[in-house]
Amino acid sequence: MLWAAAAVAALGLLITLEITARRYGQPGPITDQVEGLIFAPKPGPLYGGLALMMVVLTWRQRFIAAGVAIGIDVVFVLIRWAADAKTTDGHVFGNGALWVMLGCAVIAVTRRTGPERVLLLKGVGLGMLLVAGRKTGDTWLFITSKARPAVLDQYVATADHALGNPSWLMGRIVRTTGPIGMHVLHLVYAQLAVAAVVVALYQLRHVAVERRFPAHHLVRTFLVIGLLGPAIYMIFPVVGPVFAYGPGASGTGGVHWAVANLWPDTPPPITIPHPMSYDEITPRNCMPSLHTAWATAIFIHTRSGPRVLRFSGTFWLVATLSATLGFGYHYGVDLVAGVVFALTTETALRSLVRGWDRPGIQLVTYGAAVFAALLVSYRYLPMEMARHPWVFGSLLVLAMTSVVYGFVRTTKLWEPTAAPTRQPEPRLEPV
User: Are the C-beta atoms of 346 and 403 separated by less than 8 Å?
Assistant: First the structure.
């Protein structure tokens, strides 16, 4: 029933976004998904979705599925080469992964019964959700640029004085690292979904043997963050420092709409903020920082893994935070909101699995209240935050730290405790 309800809700969301996108003259996520069967695929985790689906298959079935996907892609590449067809940013592979996932769905319906059918459909659904999530996110970002012509960057930039304008500082630091440092950070920032798939594959490694999914895993958190977070974009539209106070991400675009070309050399002056108009192209996707939220989720889910996975989760979190600030995509206060958002979402999902108890309810309520207070303070108290940075900066860090402490404390209470080994009672031996 839960999976059926989720499928119906996802279908309803896709149809709504499709209709809304077409009203703005663009194809929606359903159209993009259908086109992905034939035309050159757009950038996205198609083979990542296939890898997630294959956790329900045996090793023999995995090799067959991967071989068929690669074979289909080779055929498509040869046809496009012969027809001299254009590709999107040089992406030529991915159609095969989508065809194999759809083929497994057909096999589940026509050739499987009972629990085996349900398990295979769950695997297909998991892989397709990852693929559809990317398409849905792209459509939603397009809608934010059309539906929210005014942005609140001046408010956020003013409030960011309380943290010392970290985006401006990191922007200068990243620039000094040269092309190698910037390339590494770009790679980490762009391949966040790949890191999530790797962690998820580790968590789901026993599904094929146990014939069931674990109660909670990273993909659930990743998808829920991606579903709920963009709604905040519509409430609090922000484009980011490099667009509002710089030359734009490309070095040229956005400068005509910017307040001034200040990022990253000159911190913005403290002036009374106002909503400002911006173009209808740049997504309003800063508040909260979902890259920070996703990287935080990856960090959390790697804590129970082996040392190499824990190290990778830590590296990905640090590198993602550095990239979001250093490339001017986010303000410091965006990151604070992103951490609180991720921990609150993770707590709610874990509570749904194990049952709502008092610690879980308290932490979710507290995290939601802190998140709401952050947004309200950024919108209505930016001047006070800028004029008293030591006070409000400390309060921001304290608020985020309190949610982190509450999460660690609550999850430790939820961890099963091993029963103490019972010592045998001493007995008298005959002499």
Answer: no
DSSP tally for the chain: helices H, then strands E = 19, 2
Contact 92, 73 (CB under 8 A): yes
Which of 315, 323, 326 shows the shortest CA–CA distance to 291? 323
- pLDDT, position 9: 73
Mean pLDDT in each 10-residue stretch from start to end of the chain (431 residues)?
A: 67 80 80 77 79 91 92 87 69 83 92 89 87 81 88 95 94 89 88 89 90 88 88 92 79 66 88 90 91 94 91 93 93 95 95 90 95 96 94 95 95 70 55 49
Assigned token pair, 124 = 């297909």
Contact 241, 157 (CB under 8 A): yes
Secondary structure of residue 356 in the 3-state scheme = coil
* Contact between residue 71 and residue 123 where contact means Cβ atoms under 8 Å apart: no
d(CA 373, CA 167): 22
Work out the angle between the directed axes of helices 46-53 and 59-83 (0-180°, nearest 10).
160
Enter the tokens of residue 185.
């950070």
Q: Are 320 and 192 in contact (CB under 8 A)?
A: yes
Per the rule left: phi > 0, alpha: psi between -120 and 50, beta: everything else, 43 is beta
Please, are residues 274 and 360 in contact by the beta-carbon 8 Å criterion? Answer: no
pTM of the model: 0.88
pLDDT at 2 (0 to 100) = 60
Opening angle at CA 72, ends 87 and 192, nearest 5? 60
191 close to 259: Cβ distance less than 8 angstroms: no
φ/ψ region of 388 (left if φ > 0, alpha if ψ in -120 to 50, else beta) reads: beta
Nearby residues of 51 by Cβ (< 8 Å), 6 or more positions away: 127, 197, 201
Sequence-distant (6+) residues with CB within 8 A of 133 are 223, 226, 227
- Residue 338: which of 351, 350, 325 has the closest Cα? 325
Residues in the chain: 431
For residue 39 the two structure tokens come to 């035309």
- What is the distance between the alpha carbons of residues 350 and 221, in angstroms, rounded to a whole number? 9
Which tokens belong to 51?
């890898």
Query: What pLDDT does 343 receive?
Result: 96
